Amino acid sequence: MPVSYAQTGGVGSDTFDTLRLAKACGRAAMLDDSTGTVGVGPAFGSTDDARLGRRVPDVGLLNRQGEAVRLASIVEAAVSRRRRLLIHAWAPW
Amino acid sequence: MWQALNDEFAIDGVDVLLIGLDVVPTNCHQYMDRAVGVLEAGHSLIDTNHATVGALGFKNVPMSMWVDENGTVVMDAHHSPVVKGWGDRPIPEGLPPRMEGRLVELKKATDRHVEYLAALRLWVKTGSVPLTKGVESTKNQALAVAAFELGDHFRRLGDRERSVQYWREAHRLDPDNWAAKRQAWTLVTTADGQAPDLVQEDTGPYEGNWLDDLVAVGGIDNYYPPTDW
């Protein structure tokens, strides 16, 4: 079955590969079987998913101009300057 | 506020990175515009996929994470009140009952912003962090993130029926993911062209609403994950 990926980008060539890879990585995955779309969640249920003491996970973000920015690039820039980061989440709702 | 905190912390080597969560990025712009120009533009960004919910643990707002100079998480996702709570504010007379009820609940919150800022400033000044344990996901919590992702995918495609189906599933799987609930509710309750609705009362196809769900979990002090600071 052809498959599209909700947000995470291509992680496999078809639905089966996507679900198998997500499972192998310990990540949650959910399939909409009527369209072949897979949503992939985070890892769970093991120490591998712990963030404390580990590198900040990377995610894709947008800047005010609508351009893609990787969180990893922000963290890398901070590390190169020996700066610490306070990451603060807010929402308009 | 963030300008002042950023200036204060910058001297000791800490930069502030603000991340606004909203699947409609323009909803964040007016708030960002107040910060951009005071914060570097690259330090005020938008998470349009709620990617930080699953990856960083930001299941409600405001929440924060502290990162050391090696890029390592030293304080996992936590509730981060940096301004005084609602406790001392009077409730205006003549409000609709549900709006009054919302303010009554908000005023019950234990105001911990002084305590939080003290812990934050201690880390900024000395690198000392409170004894904390990391936040790990259960299977249902992780599946809720996957379901939210599917729902948002179908929302972007204009498939409202499937979008609602998966967002409802996300809410069922992880009722503590207030970001997923508030995002869905506000899209229903906000009139076209208006700023996102904060009351979130008549939530249409979704179960629950802000006030009733808050009361159901035992009130405002159970609204955020327990904190260690």
The most extensive interface between chains reads:
A-B, 55 and 90 residues
What portion of residues of chain B belong to β-strands? 5-15%
β-strand amount of chain A: 25-35%
Major β-sheet strand ordering of chain A? 1-3-2
Biggest sheet of chain B, open or closed, and with what strands and sense? 2 strands, parallel
Category by helix and strand content of chain A: alpha+beta
Shape of chain B: globular
Report the order of strands and helices of chain A: EHEEEEHE
Q: Mean pLDDT across all residues of chain A, rounded?
A: 80
The neighbouring-strand order within the major sheet of chain B is: 1-2
Note poorly predicted spans of chain A.
8-12
Number of helical segments with 4 or more residues of chain A: 2
Rounded to the nearest angstrom, the radius of gyration of chain B is 18 Å
**Considering DSSP H and I runs of 4 or more, what fraction of the residues of chain B is helical?**
40-55%
Overall 3D geometry of chain A?
extended
